[in-house]
Specification:
heterodimer, A: 109 residues, mainly alpha, 3 helices, B: 546 residues, Cytochrome C Oxidase, Chain A, 15 helices, disordered N terminus, disordered C terminus
């Protein structure tokens, strides 16, 4: 029989407080234009990048600890990686459209 | 060749006799009863969607808009599409036949999560009733595709209610897929190795992958439409910093693979029918099995072929066009392999086989016109014309429903314990084949001649083809009505079905018709491959009807 990993309550509490802290951080950075506080010519897109980075960190914590992937069997980890791969496909092909608009112009013009 | 060591038909009470009363159905956790619940529900939605199709074809019998205003016609074809796609075609084979058969085919007592299975049905019903409620209160006019900015800004109707209805039903689909995958991985009987699985199971495995990976994306996309309508957040509307084409990317990322949610299970049914009624092993088992997975994966890489004229970049269009051609390979593998299975088989033309042969012909036309439409240049010419309508009906109606009906007829004795009338079932199958082709083949010509879809008025020069199409729809309607009558009739008057009326292979035929609650009296042990037909003896003759 396979052994089942039991995550200590302390870990859940730590992850919970980390998620709460990151939530406050999300709200906080929404009120600051980070681009203005960085040297050089940084576009406002940095604000989106920071918000997304925080969101991805939070999602990662949820997947790893609350969804037990950290201590899961290899098959479960493969499922998670496969899901991420398909998200990558969604983003990559959609962005392929956005970034290549205008490369070949519009037929007939 | 050794026969599978399975339980013999037993005298245990069948799943139909084990409990009685509405509560025994509405709170059941038996995968077979849940399959029946789905059968009833999707049949109702099919009738509703079909009635709308009748009204659409009646309107199109003349060039003038003499039955409906443009606005009502818009709402009519929208609800036809939504009901047929989200509430009939997507759940049809997986939720009815898959639910009923998948555990039996792998020698399990039930699906891995029986309560989740019942929850899926309730979610489906809640979503369906919300969508039907939106229809009763005016419906929507966005088309089933919900394109922005039409759906977010301009549509006047119950967009929010319909969107939430589809969102909720989407979770039913996700949970069904999840249940199937876990069941196939964890609950196979001893000896049921991966390469002894029936191809029906492989097809459902591939379908489940699409359901789990794709459905959340469309669910969120439709929810964002609702959020943008309500709160004006800038996702799709350029006025708020959004992009309308983003919706099309998100929508088609799911909705193109959704076509494979409809067709892959039908292909799984096909493999069962072709082998059973040819008395032969399937030609190239591994190729057919892996082609399902290949279709599931490649299906996620081609969505941009719906967007050639949307403003998508030409480069992206060319990439998507190239990738679209790849889907033709596994699809062709299946058709060639079924055909090779037929070769030198001992073919018996019983009703399920008629549907199977019809499927091959119809899918061939639907698939090859799909290759045409995947080609950038041709698609630009026929985009949004009846050529597209004909193509997707050949795949989604012709092929998927042929597969569904073929499967329903094949396993009807197993599901109900009764045989249906063979003569009328053959009449029904032939009428459906003739009616379907008469309805939709003229639409290829109409589309090629330039008749656009989604209009209820058209130039008089298109009337002949439209009248032919509407006449075909009448035949098709009668064809669909006939099975309803004789299948219902068989429930009371049909001859009792033996455990294996077709002399077919597969664990489901080794247990009683209908099966007991736990499917087998003793857990089966599998000792041979799928489709181990030993001889080319003709299919066992069956006495049908009364």
């Amino acid at each position: 029989m396979s052994t089942v990993h039991v995550t200590p309550v302390r870990t859940y509490l730590l992850v919970f407080f980390a998620l709460m802290a990151l939530t406050f951080l999300t709200v906080g950075v929404a009120h600051v234009n980070i681009a203005h506080h960085l040297p050089g010519q940084v576009t406002d897109a940095i604000n989106d990048a920071v918000a997304m980075a925080i969101a991805v960190t939070k999602a990662t914590l949820v997947v790893l600890f609350f969804m037990h992937v950290w201590h899961s069997a290899r098959l479960n980890k493969i499922v998670v990686w496969a899901s991420l791969f398909f998200i990558l496909i969604l983003f990559a092909f959609s962005l392929a459209d956005y970034f290549s608009r205008g490369w070949l112009g519009v037929p007939g013009k | 060749m050794t026969a599978p060591a399975t339980a013999a038909p037993t005298e245990l009470p069948s799943y139909l006799e084990a409990a009685h009363g509405p509560k025994s159905w509405l709170l059941t956790r038996d995968h077979k009863r849940i399959g029946i619940l789905y059968l009833v529900a999707i049949s109702v939605f099919f009738v509703l969607g079909g009635l709308m199709a009748v009204l659409i074809r009646a309107e199109l019998a003349t060039p003038q808009g003499d039955m409906f205003s443009s606005d009502v016609y818009n709402r009519l074809f929208t609800m036809h599409g939504i009901l047929m796609i989200f509430f009939f075609l997507i759940p049809s084979i997986p939720a009815v036949l898959g639910n009923f058969l998948l555990p039996v085919m792998i020698g399990a007592k039930d699906l891995a999560f029986p309560k989740l299975n019942l929850t899926s049905w309730y979610l489906y019903m809640i979503g369906g009733l919300m969508t039907f409620g939106s229809l009763l209160t005016g419906g929507i006019d966005t088309g089933w595709t919900f394109y922005t900015p039409m759906s977010t800004t301009f549509a006047q109707g119950q967009v929010l209610v319909t969107a939430v209805g589809i969102f909720v039903a989407g979770f039913s689909s996700i949970l069904t897929g999840l249940n199937f995958i876990v069941t196939i991985h964890r609950m196979r009987a001893p000896g049921m190795t991966w390469f002894r699985l029936p191809l029906f199971v492989w097809a459902h495995y591939a379908t489940s992958i699409i359901q789990i990976l794709g459905t959340p994306v469309v669910a969120i996309a439709i929810l964002l439409v609702g959020a943008e309508r309500l709160f004006h957040i800038g996702v799709f509307d350029p006025k708020y910093g959004g992009d309308p084409l983003l919706f099309q990317h998100l929508f088609w990322f799911y909705s193109h693979p959704a076509v494979y949610i409809m067709i892959l299970p039908a292909m799984g049914v096909m493999s069962e029918l072709v082998t059973a009624f040819s008395r032969k092993r399937v030609f190239g088992y591994h190729f057919v099995a892996f082609s399902s997975l290949f279709i599931a994966v490649i299906g996620f890489l081609v969505w941009g072929h719906h967007m050639y004229v949307s403003g998508q970049s030409v480069v992206a269009g060319a990439i998507f066009s190239f990738l679209t051609m790849l889907v033709a390979i596994p699809s062709a593998v299946k058709v060639f392999n079924w055909t090779a299975t037929l070769y030198k088989g001992s073919i018996s033309l019983q009703t399920p086989m008629l549907y199977a042969l019809g499927f091959i012909g119809v899918f061939l036309i639907g698939g090859l016109t799909g290759v045409m439409l995947g080609t950038l240049g041709i698609d630009i010419h026929v985009h949004d014309t009846y050529f597209i309508v004909a193509h997707f009906h050949y795949v989604m109606v012709g092929s998927a429903i042929m597969g569904y009906l073929g499967g329903l007829h094949f396993w009807w004795p197993k599901i109900t314990g009764r045989m249906y009338d063979e003569f009328w079932s053959k009449v029904g199958a032939l009428l459906i084949f003739v009616g379907f082709n008469t309805t939709f083949f003229p639409q290829f010509i109409l589309g090629y001649l330039g008749m656009p879809r989604r209009y209820h008025m058209y130039p008089a020069e298109f009337q002949t083809w439209n009248v032919l199409s509407s006449a075909g729809a009448t035949i098709l309607g009668v064809g669909y009505l006939i099975p309803v009558i004789y299948l219902l009739w068989s429930l009371k008057f049909g001859a009792k079905a033996p455990a294996n009326p077709w002399g077919a292979k597969g664990l489901e035929w080794q247990t009683a018709s209908p099966p007991p609650v736990e499917n087998f009296a003793t857990p089966p042990v599998v000792t041979e491959e799928a489709y181990a037909y030993e001889t080319s003896a003709p299919a066992k003759e069956v006495t049908v009807g009364v």
